[in-house]
Amino acid sequence: MGQSSTIPLEVDDSDMEKRPTVRIGGRLVGEEHGVFIIAEAGVNHNGSVDAAHRLIDAAREAGADAVKFQAFCADRLVAADAPLCDYQQARAQSGSQRELLRRLELRRDDFAALKKHADAAGVAFLATPFGLDELRMLCDLGVPAIKIASPDLVNVPLLAAAADTGRPMILSTGASELAEVDAAVETLFQRGATDRLVLLHCVSSYPTPPADARLRCIRTLADRFAVPVGFSDHTASPDIGAVAVAVGAAVLEKHLTLDRRAAGPDHFFSLEPEPFSRYVAAARQAYQSLGDGNIRCCSAERQVRELARGSVVAATHIPAGKRLTSDVLAIRRPAGGIEPAQWTTLLGRVAKTDIPADTRLSWAMLH
How many CA atoms lie within 13 A of 163 on its CB side? Predict the structure, then answer.
């Protein structure tokens, strides 16, 4: 990829202090604005509109910020003889991708009803378009952002069309080489998406073993492109999301299902509502635990600071006129007197008055 002036391949300290943000609906998305959690309903409705509505309710009850589905036409998306991935074959009731996906399609009217439901529930409605027709449909419905799936990171026509909508974009990077991510970001930046792009580190393995999660890629992407970065979590773990937040993820995308035992390609590595709720709670707690990075004594530490730190005291009776030496001084709890950090300054000072043993010293006692 040619060098682009719009992609900050080296980010200086002042750039990082800006902490880039993107607005999705009513939420600012970025490292300083909590973690934006997307419940990936995907195709876990198994083609049932009723199940799709129940997934929206489950996402809301779990505390997710958004719920996301997938919009596609199987006949346009895949060739008739396209085979299934290994993880799909064990759980599919068909021999080709097209047959599998046909059973998982939702209609335009279904998406309209689902968006209305999500809006009423206070959950942002998102869907991944897998073609230009689906992209236009979602824009007509007024979705607050466009999510592009990892396989389409190299789909230049879809990337360009999505950027041209002017909407915020979320782009997953699974199974990609860095040069491919560079090229995709350059395409989007050249079409004006510089301040409305979120990247998701993603591992396209189902489920992803935690050892393969490579969460340090979150920081790599954030530093390279100066955009908010999150994690599209395909592990089966309810804990990895919190770890991703600790690394710097501003967004988490996690599959939600009503029943992990259901037939279908994605249920087995998804989380059911109760574990998903714990996932959300753990991620938000992880964010709260990060703090602002400023080292200082906080209010919760104040009592321990006062009671566990010591003061300089008279180790023995010190008569007036005696010059202080280390053998007549000691450090004992609590704080409140002269701090031990002043020890060397005290040596050689002279007592103005008699100082009884175990008395905390003050500067007024000394010449």
Answer: 22
Integer Cα distance of 107 and 109 in angstroms: 5
* Residue matched to tokens 């992803």: 208
**Residue 141 class from Cβ within 10 Å (0-12 exposed, 13-18 middle, 19+ buried)?**
middle
Which structure tokens are listed for 117? 């439901």
Burial of residue 367, with CB atoms counted within 10 A of its CB: 0-12 exposed, 13-18 middle, 19 or more buried: exposed
DSSP structure string for 271-305: B-HHHHHHHHHHHHHHHHHH--S--S--GGGHHHH
At residue 83 the predicted structure's pLDDT band, cuts being 50, 70 and 90, is: confident
For the stretch 259-290, pLDDT in tens is 999 999 999 999 999 999 999 999 999 999 99
Asked whether the predicted pLDDT for residue 296 surpasses 60, the reply is yes
Q: What is the mean pLDDT of residues 157-169?
A: 98
Cα separation, 324 vs 346, in Å, equals: 7
Run of H or E residues at 190: helix 178-190
pTM: 0.87
Alpha carbon distance 204, 67 (integer Å) = 20
Spell out the long-range contacts of 176-184 with Cβ–Cβ below 8 A and sequence spacing 24 or more.
Answer: 176/150, 179/1, 180/153, 180/154, 181/153, 181/221, 182/1, 182/7, 183/1, 183/154, 184/153, 184/154, 184/159
Phi then psi for residue 102, to 5 deg, are -55, -35
* Phi, psi (rounded to 5 degrees) for 62: -80, -10
Q: Which of 171, 180, 245 is nearest to 202 (CA)?
A: 171
Q: What percent of the chain has pLDDT over 70?
A: 93
Backbone angles phi, psi at 127, to 5 degrees: -150, 150
Contacts of residue 11, defined as CB under 8 A and 6 or more positions apart, other chains included, come to 223, 224, 226
